[in-house]
Amino acid sequence: PTTVYLKDYTPFGYLVDSVSLTFDLVPNATRVTARIAFRPNPEAQDRTFFLHGEGLKLIGAQIDGQDVKPELTDQGLTCDVPDGPFLWESEVEIDPANNTALEGLYMSNGMYCTQCEAEGFRKITFYPDRPDVMSTFTVRIYGDLPVMLSNGNPSDSGDGWVEWTDPWPKPAYLFALVAGDLVAHSDRFTTASGQEVDLNLWVRPGDEHKCAFGMEALKKSMRWDEEVYGREYDLDVFNIVAVDDFNMGAMENKGLNIFNSAAVLASPDTSTDGNFERIEAIIAHEYFHNWTGNRITCRDWFQLCLKEGLTVFRDSQFTSDLRSAPVKRISDVIDLRARQFPEDNGPLAHPVRPESFQEINNFYTATVYEKGAEVIGMLKRLVGDAAYAEALDLYFARHDGQACTIEDWLKVFEDVTGRDLAQFKRWYSQAGTPRVAVEERWAEGTYTLTLTQSTPPTPDQPDKAPQVIPVAVGLLGPNGDEVRETQLLELTEERQSFTFEGLAAKPVPSILRGFSAPVILDRETTTEERAFLLAHDTDPFNRWEAGRALAQHTLLDMIVNGTPPEPAYLDGIQSVLRDEALDPAYRALMLGLPGQSELAATLHERGHTPDPMAIWQAVETLRQTMAEHLQDLLPRLHAEAQVDAPYRPDAEQSGKRALGSAVLGLINRIDGGVLAAEEYGKADNMTLQLSALGALIRAGKGAGQLAAFYDQWKDDRLVIDKWFGLQVSLAEPADTVKVAVHLTRHDDFNWKNPNRFRAVLGALAMNHAGFHHESGAGYSLLADWLLRLDPVNPQTTARMCAPFQTWKRYDAKRQEMIAEQLDRIAAAPGLSRDTTEMISRIRG
Ligand code: HT7
Ligand code: ZN
């Protein structure tokens, strides 16, 4: 496979002035005609006329009305073209009914839909399929289907056809078409400047009752983007479509967002609070792309973080504004540590702006998205809120309608602030999670913090230069009062000292408040100090972090030294839980423990070989001890968590239910499932039903309810995904593979559907002790299924290789078993480019 490099970028030799497409929709033989107005690009040197095209049957091509015979390869075509402007016309035939890769034009439950990002448009017609080629599009769709949609505004229609016109120039990856038997949940929105917009959420008949929440989320997003970023919507209509077979969460096609149905359909009976919150965030994310991604797009795919990092940052701000900012920040950091840190510290490490790839689909990663968003958060902290707002205004004004780079992005900040961001830019080019070591000194009223940064080597980057690390610090006095408010230290050197003068007593530092940078803080401190911060820190993130550090410390001690659980942790958590002034959602987070995979990573970093069974056992023991220690408090907390109002998936109610569920998990360990059975019986929403079912399974008493749950929900595919996933995630280590195998034999295990595949095999990989069971059966089961899925859907297969990325942490026997599976996958004849790249990077 060929490798593409950032350094090799050159502009395309031609500009596209307009694109006119017609689709004659037939399941196995759809005809696509394209009329594309090209003219030479004055900025380009190379005039090779190459159009991408894959899996297309060329029926005919003309230039300015004359038949031409282009030279075809399996990547596309080349052709001799006139020196000046010309009209290219082509007709191709494609087979959407047999497109199982879910890229290009495909069919899902009888409905036509498209997925073009990143390089799917070339499976629809011959085109310069690169994001820096932007054009307006007119699309005519012929077909015998009740609803036929494309980007932009409806512009014409006749018997059996409709036409859509998108006035905004866009790259081909934002093209979309949907056609099928769909029903709309409709609404209207009036923009700040008074433009009326028709809003439609299109779903399959039967799903109409799951649309209201998504529509409200869309309207909130539209208003928020006007109020916070001054961004208005720019078409007469905004369509969202729910599709069952979809590789990722959703896609921001201009004016026609396409969503995995799991990422948009919601009802209290069938969706959990977590589902509602995720849906709200994804709807916002895709909507926000209208400006950060669509109006201003990426010059090339190396700049992916330009749109994704910024849009994740914007959707996090939105969720923080609508819900609880500290809860959102803590949840984001939990997620970053669970998904991005392993990537940044393993064989798949790559910079936020990668410098090469074989298959771009493999770079839609936690690093590009979530670390990309963290980088923007740091920039905002460093320049301040006012300068950030000014820089964003300048970005939109200067670059509207352009395909941009990270250089363009940073330049607006430099122009607004006068700051040199050359060193800051290393966040985009250096992979790996920086570590910050802390030393303290106290003498005569002066407290000195010395910070030392280092970033470990990553693939292709043995040496790292110091980065700009914003470290938010506050100081607490011995009685718990804050003696210095949060101050932002800018760590730019490898080693740097910061002094705080005029203090009456040695303070306790609260470092990296709000998780002000995506780094690992190396700080040897005492249990007393952590307990002190857990009791007194005024920064909600660091207060939670102190509890987390205590939990981690006690778990590592239990695993490595066989020590019993730390009383300071148990007492500290108890005090926090007693504090009724604290948000229930926050208290629920306080009851969480570090993930088992995260514990394995920490053990490995500290020179131990993680034993997944010992980790699992320690977590079980600590949970049991917590249940016993908190026993007297639990009934009161459970009562406090009750909601006496009709179901609403808002922060207040869902926070209570989160606390209730965490408390039920502990009570369950004492009463052996009695309360869980009661709760299951009276649950009137999916959040409560699923939490009670989970507790029953954990107590070994869920068989009856599990069967009843299936009978109740067998016609709802999204709920049945949960039913599959729950059983695998909650299986005991020795049973996990058995449960997963059993479920893969279930009649409803439609493995070609990415959601169902992930429900079982994704859950297997997430069950740390089960996946890493000493038998190696978890590894071979995942490999078997990856091999089966690869010819059908390479994109989802490649993403599902990621669980193997941590393999070098484990003992020699496990490493050998994983290597064997990686080699078996690599040796499969005809393995896709996607999976080949992932396996070879993981294998190293
Ligand atoms: N921009 C989109 C990323 C994407 C995608 C979405 C669905 C299916 C395949 C895809 N490939 C890339 C989603 C987003 O970040 O908003
Ligand atoms: Zn996105």
From TrEMBL:
Entries under InterPro entries matching the protein: Aminopeptidase_N-like_N, Aminopeptidase_N-like_N_sf, PepN_Ig-like_sf, Peptidase_M1, Peptidase_M1_dom, Peptidase_M1_pepN, Peptidase_M1_pepN_C, Peptidase_M1_pepN_C_sf
Stored Gene3D superfamilies: 2.60.40.1840, 3.30.2010.30, Neutral Protease Domain 2 (1.10.390.10), Peptidase M1, alanyl aminopeptidase, C-terminal domain (1.25.50.10), tricorn interacting facor f3 domain (2.60.40.1730)
Keywords: Aminopeptidase, Hydrolase, Metal-binding, Metalloprotease, Protease, Zinc
Annotated Peptidase M1 membrane alanine aminopeptidase domain residues: 213-427
UniProt key word Zinc: yes
Catalytic reaction annotation: Release of an N-terminal amino acid, Xaa-|-Yaa- from a peptide, amide or arylamide. Xaa is preferably Ala, but may be most amino acids including Pro (slow action). When a terminal hydrophobic residue is followed by a prolyl residue, the two may be released as an intact Xaa-Pro dipeptide
Similarity comment: Belongs to the peptidase M1 family.
The protein's name in its UniProt record: Aminopeptidase N
UniProt organism field: Lutimaribacter marinistellae
Classification of source organism: Bacteria, Pseudomonadati, Pseudomonadota, Alphaproteobacteria, Rhodobacterales
